[in-house]
Amino acid sequence: MAQREVKLLMGNEAIALGAIRAGVRVVSGYPGTPSTEILETIAKEKNPHIYVEWSVNEKAALEIAAGAAMSGARALVTMKQVGLNVASDPLMSLNYVGVKGGLVLAVADDPGPISSQTEQDTRRFGAFAKLMVFDPASPTEAYAMVADAFDWSEKYGRPVIFRPTTRVCHSYSSVEILPNISQKNDESEKPQGFERSQRWVIFPGLSYRNHIQIEKDLIRLGDEFSAYPGNKLSITAGNSGNSPRKGIAAGGVSRAYAREALIKINSNTAYKLLEVSTVPFPSKLGNEFLEGLDEVLVIEELDPVIEDALIRLCGLHHLKVNIRGKLSGDMPNAGENTVALIAEKIQNFLGDLFSVIPNSAGSTAGSPALITNPPELPVRPPVLCAGCPHRGSFFAVKEAVRKNGAGKKAVFSGDIGCYTLGNALPLNMVDTCLCMGAGITIAQGINRAEPDTLNFAFVGDSTFFHTGIPGIVNAVYNKADIIVVILDNYTTAMTGSQPHPGTGESVTGSPAGKINIYDVVKALGVKDIVRADPFDSNTAEDAVTLMLDKKGVRVILFEGPCIAVRAGSGKCSITAEQCTGCQICVKKLGCPAISVVPAEKPKLQAVIDPVLCIGCGICRTVCPAGAIGDAAPNGGAQ
After folding, report:
1. pLDDT of residue 366
2. How far apart are CA 89 and CA 120, in angstroms?
3. Which residues contact residue 76 at a Cβ distance below 8 angstroms, ignoring those fewer than 6 apart?
4. Burial class for 248, CB neighbours closer than 10 Å (0-12, 13-18, 19+)
5. CA distance 154 to 148
6. Residue by residue, what is the 3-state secondary structure of 335-356?
7. What's the chain's average pLDDT?
8. pLDDT band at 638 (very low <50, low <70, confident <90, very high)
9. How many CB atoms neighbour CB 402 within 10 A?
10. Could you tell me which of 384, 407, 440, 416 has the C-alpha nearest to residue 553?
11. How far apart are CA 538 and CA 136, in angstroms?
């Protein structure tokens, strides 16, 4: 028998290849860490039978996938947990309407959070929407589980959520590449096509009848998932020969952590381990797990979903089992789990019933429960890159308001993107940040409460297309008095430089329809629009000043490339003899390429790191001594 191929894959790559194996035909999504690489990996495969797109937002992405699934095609939508909030409107109705082809929403959760506004748990969202949720523990499991998600979607005719978390998405594992699912990957087999039917039109009567069926199916799913291979019950006999009185239940990536911790532990008595990978909870398996136990430790990230399910079973069946976890304070109710943390919690839970297995040298050093706390990593706060056009934009607005704002109070409403980092000192230019597109509408609310305030709303180019446009429509319609600052750096920078409708390029790199932001804003009825180069500090500041005394909705469009799109070719340098040590360049800009070092005269001198500097030149305009210029070939300033 031929040996199968094994690949070292990132979790997101494994999910993507698993979807291709399962016969996905349409893939849509919106970039959001930690989910982004799923769609990008599928696009890189360049399969002619798979359509792939970055949609304008998650709502649009889901509706596109829903149309494909209604036509019998298998469809995949990718997003992060907060993106599901945007897609929630069609999702809630779609479960009532149903689908014909399998529809899977890959929604990546971000415990920590590492790169998100929230730590919301998509398992809760799935339960709220009455949807199935698959919760993989590793890239290897995720690869195979994606096909299961498509199968269950088609079996019940409803969308399914696939919920990897950050450590599953971005960890690596050796994955055995399985054969394609032939009936779904047959190139000659096309989707059945859309068939006209009343089932696709959501009327109240239909919703009522389908809701009844959904509730019946959830009970049935709880039983069927008890036999699903991803849900497992194991018993460790121990040395005493007694029946287990303690149990451990774990879900998601915490299943892998618990297994790893327990491998290093030598049991003196029996215990049960329940691994849960689905919503609805596998009720029959849960009852079998609880039978004969006195207490259970539940290990999961974010919400106490499994813990609640076990408590419910105990109530329904009058079981006297002490369920311990987040609700009891035995497990943290926020942040990520780790192997070391779980090992410590298991040791505390099991007490002296367990001991750590020595390693081959007879030492217990390195075992998770005995690892001494490592030194804390140095703090590295996120910062705008050297040469980022947003720094120039923020600086121009700040200086214009300082010099020409007539002493008015100014509020700077921010949004989601790299430019959120403008809240840090010394710029200090982001006063609010709520969710995608909210900066423009929050500025309107502040304007209504404080009419005499100068209200600025910053929004990026990708966010403008995502949910920024309705905010401008609302402002024009209701005659708000705000200044919208659109920061166009020609890419979706924060998630890895993905294209968007303003770039003229698709996810596959091919030409796409290009939408001009200036033309859109003009078409929305904004009369006062000015364009400026954020790297030209003087003209950028003049553009802001021009808008300060006007009224109504006005827009400043700053256009300058992200360094990931077009890095600068020159460098800046500081002439030591001219530097006075005033540190204004550091205190005003906060560019990571500029720092101060000890010097004899002056006592401190500013220096520019030639590795970080891209020669954007903004720093030249702030130096009162004129000490900053182009770097000469020998490293000095010209």
Report:
1. 43
2. 17
3. 19, 24, 26, 27, 28, 29, 38, 42, 65, 103, 104, 106
4. buried
5. 10
6. CCCCHHHHHHHHHHHHHHHEEE
7. 90
8. very low
9. 10
10. 440
11. 53
* Angle, vertex CA 476, rays to CA 472 and CA 480, nearest 5: 95
pLDDT band at 298 (very low <50, low <70, confident <90, very high): very high
Helices and strands counted in the chain (H then E): 20, 25
Closest CA to 102 of 178, 23, 182: 23
List residues bridging with 511 in a β-sheet: 505
First to last CA, the chain: 70
Contacts of 331-338 spanning 24+ positions with Cβ under 8 A: 331/297, 331/298, 331/299, 331/300, 333/304, 334/119, 334/302, 335/111, 335/112, 335/119, 336/111, 336/112, 336/166, 336/167, 336/301, 337/111, 337/253, 337/254, 337/257, 337/299, 337/300, 337/301, 338/257
Cβ neighbors of 135 (< 8 A, separation 6 or more) are 123, 163, 251, 252, 276, 277, 278, 279
For tokens 């959001």, what's the residue? 32
The size of the chain, in residues, is 638
Place of tokens 């909870």: 281
Q: Look-up: residue for tokens 């309407």?
A: 97
* CA dihedral (434, 440, 441, 447) positive or negative: positive
**CB–CB of 108/165 below 8 Å?**
yes
**What is the band of 342 on the pLDDT scale with cuts at 50, 70, 90?**
very high
CA pair distance 491, 472, nearest whole angstrom: 21
DSSP 391-419: HHHHHHHHHHHHHHSTT--EEEE--SSGG
Instruction: Give the CA count within 13 Å in the CB-facing half-sphere of 145.
Output: 30
Under 8 Å between Cβ of 320 and 295: no
Beta carbons within 8 Å of 163's beta carbon, 6+ residues apart: 107, 108, 109, 122, 123, 126, 133, 134, 135, 136, 252
Find the angle CA(108)-CA(109)-CA(110) to the nearest 5 degrees: 120
Q: What is the pLDDT of residues 384-432, one digit of tens each?
A: 999 999 999 999 999 999 999 988 999 999 999 999 999 999 999 999 9
Dist CA 535 CA 194 (whole Å):
51
The single residue listed with the structure tokens 């369920």 is 323
What is the number of other CB atoms lying within 10 angstroms of the CB of residue 264? 19
Token pair recorded at residue 240: 């005493």
**Bond before 34 cis per omega within 30 degrees:** yes
Q: What type of residue sits at position 378?
A: P
**Does the CA dihedral 308-309-313-319 come out positive or negative?**
negative
CA distances from 347 to 292, 299, 301, 307 (A): 21, 13, 19, 19
Whole-angstrom Cα distance, residue 631 to residue 617? 11
Per-residue exposure over 282-318, b if at least 16 CB sit within 10 Å of its own CB, e if not? bbebbbebbeebeebbbbbbbbbbbbbbbbebbeeee
DSSP string spanning 541-565? Answer: HHHHHHHHT--SEEEEEEE---TTT
Q: Averaged over 604-628, what is the pLDDT?
A: 92
Burial class (CB in 10 A: 0-12, 13-18, 19+), 372: exposed
Radius of gyration of the chain (CA): 28
325/251 Cα distance (integer angstroms): 12
